[in-house]
Description:
- The protein is built from two helices and no strands.
- The chain is mainly α.
- Helix 1 (2-28) packs antiparallel against helix 2.
Amino acid sequence: MQQLLEEIKEIEPVIQIMNEDGEKLSELAPGDAGFKVEDTLTKDKKRFEAVNDAVQNKADKYRASKLKNAEVPQILIYLF
């Protein structure tokens, strides 16, 4: 999980640069090519956001589960 979170942090600046440069490219591209560039950028951004959200949600669930599992031995000690 940690590796995925680190990879997302590494990829995020690349996506930002791609969006900035892509917007410039779409303005310079003739005719429908500009719209195709914008469409591709939008799709890539949505995919990245979906993957990022999914990984973040899984990481949050993993952390919560880990905390809950750490509490179980303490509860058992208290009960016995």
